[in-house]
Amino acid sequence: MSHPPIIGPSVLSADFLRYGEALSEAEAAGADYIHFDVMDGSFVPNISIGFPVLEATARGTTLPIDVHLMIENPDRWAAEFAAGGATHVTFQAEATRHAHRVATGIVDAGATAGIAINPATPLAAVEEMLPFISTLLVMTINPGFGGQALIPETREKVRRARAMIEALNPACRLQVDGGIDRNTITSLELAGADSFVAGSAIFNNRATVAENLNELRARLARHNTFAV
Ligand code: DX5
Ligand code: ZN
Q1: CATH number of 6-219
Q2: Catalytic residue numbers, as ranges
């Protein structure tokens, strides 16, 4: 049985010229958490934001901050993000040989830990980690950029991830990230996801943050939102 669904705007798609307002709009619109994408130009072909922006984010919102590390060597950095204002830190399974040590370091530093897998990474790569994490993130695109189209085959992987979570750690959340919009969110919920990251579907010029968030929420079978 999955948790009530929650939605986290990815600030990667926000207008950084008015970043504080974007945070306030998300919070006022009832976002459940802020998704904060860290990219190092090595693990993914893009560079994004890091510690100074995380520190400002922690001052700019009361929402939980969900840091998604798309970086090499999370062994070196993950605990520092946990100590630097993150509520939750997710690292990519492909980036470390010592996922258990990284997850333990995050928890010891005061945050909850999650592990992410790219579309090409099998679920079996993180099976043994399920007892040690509170979120499994199944990437529904290849990480690196906002605004990409969801890879449809990942829905089937989400279905298998739900079964694995039910068998090994039902308390663990199943998060999806990449290409989540009004047309894709329902099928991912039906596949078993219960935490939805959305960047370009929430921060765009077509509608307000509140309108976009409400639209996504309306597409979920259940409309409740709960804190992480
Ligand atoms: C991509 C990031 C995502 C991204 C999602 O590498 O991990 O969180 O911001 O953006 P959308 O929702 O636009 O696909
Ligand atoms: Zn992300």
Answers
A1: 3.20.20.70
A2: 37, 177
Domain boundaries of the chain, sorted by first residue: 6-219
pLDDT for 81-103, tens place per residue?
999 999 999 999 999 999 999 99
**Which spans in the chain are helix H?**
19-28, 51-60, 74-83, 99-108, 154-168, 185-191, 209-219
Q: What pTM value is reported for the model?
A: 0.96
Residues 202 and 168: beta-carbon distance below 8 Å: no
Binned at pLDDT 50, 70 and 90, residue 140 comes out as very high
For the cut 80, the answer to whether the pLDDT of residue 222 exceeds it is no
> Ligand 1: residues within 6 Å at CB?
10, 12-13, 35, 37, 68, 70, 141, 143-148, 177-180, 197-201
